[in-house]
Amino acid sequence: MFQFVFSRAYCTNSIRRKWKEFEKTLGCAEEGHPSLGDPDWASYTLGVFICLSCSGIHRNIPQVSKVKSVRLDAWDEAQVEFLASHGNDAARARFESKVPSFYYRPTPSDCQLLREQWIRAKYERQEFIYPEKQEPYSAGYREGFLWKRGRDNGQFLSRKFVLTEREGALKYFNRNDAKEPKAVMKIEHLNATFQPAKIGHPHGLQVTYLKDNSTRNIFIYHEDGKEIVDWFNALRAARFHYLQVAFPGASDADLVPKLSRNYLKEGYMEKTGPKQTEGFRKRWFTMDDRRLMYFKDPLDAFARGEVFIGSKESGYTVLHGFPPSTQGHHWPHGITIVTPDRKFLFACETESDQREWVAAFQKAVDRPMLPQEYAVEAHFKHKP
């Protein structure tokens, strides 16, 4: 067939007319929902429209995907016809036909690693066409070596990790030949979230679990992006299967949001003690669901203290500012959290920080407490 180059305007209009016919195909094929505007890039070998950010990832797998700008590049007739006859919906039907319920689908706000591995899993490795390729994270058992940050010295050392659904635990060992694990993390109370900026590595993963009703952090990474994302999805799979047993009547849609969670808000604030007469001290705060934890350093293993933030029906309130005559704070923008037991005072450096923290706290306060959260509240120990 004779190939020739269309004018840019003709090609752009031709492509746009086609994809406007199918509202569900609007947006980036990798983001799972319509974007705010039309995507300006397309893969003419896969037949999908993508955003600028995802186009860079597609370029890194040229053996699978070749991309062009919808607005700036010239398109030949065959490329336009291929796009017109395929599209985002057709690609999802093929390349996402067997995505496990537990597999994490990244959003535009997720780190580069998660988005890149999602795209590679779909098109390069075709993991969601051939379920046998999902074995690394769906088998119920996984072991390997990860770089783990030392609790006291901050040095990353290679440690053996074992995930076993049968025992309902993630374990790690300080020595390769160790008989007993250094720590046993129950799947029931485990969470994992990618924190590349915080950890200082593009593959950095933060794993948290409960130890004596307090949160314990460990920070890990692997040099291979696929390896660490496989670990992440293996942890989600283990959580999924645990919750299926714990809540036999729940649907997959009910369980998936509980598999792992990103933090509602993190950053520095100042705080004072329970008597509100001590000086304010700068601390790193993490809002994890209803647990507000504070640390001397963002990479500390244990929080200096934790505050449970319940609902307004249970007597919790969030206020802008401080009580009268509050002293000792260096940062000017105050927040007061009123609980049934006491008031907690925090200071933010900027007004925008204050607004964001108040919004995060208010979100928790406005949400009615679940039955199991009352049990957490009853056993929660407020630490100064």
Automatic annotation (TrEMBL):
Q: Write down the PROSITE patterns for this protein, in alphabetical order.
A: ARFGAP (PS50115), PH_DOMAIN (PS50003)
Protein origin, superkingdom: Eukaryota
A GO cellular-component term linked to this record: cytoplasm
What are the record keywords, sorted? Answer: Cytoplasm, GTPase activation, Metal-binding, Repeat, Zinc, Zinc-finger
Instruction: Please give the Gene Ontology molecular function terms for this protein.
Output: GTPase activator activity; inositol 1,3,4,5 tetrakisphosphate binding; phosphatidylinositol bisphosphate binding; phosphatidylinositol-3,4,5-trisphosphate binding; zinc ion binding
Q: Where in the cell is it found?
A: Cytoplasm
The residues covered by the PH domain are 139-240, 262-366
Identify the Gene3D superfamilies for this entry: Arf GTPase activating protein, Pleckstrin-homology domain (PH domain)/Phosphotyrosine-binding domain (PTB)
**Protein name (Swiss-Prot/TrEMBL):** ArfGAP with dual PH domains 1
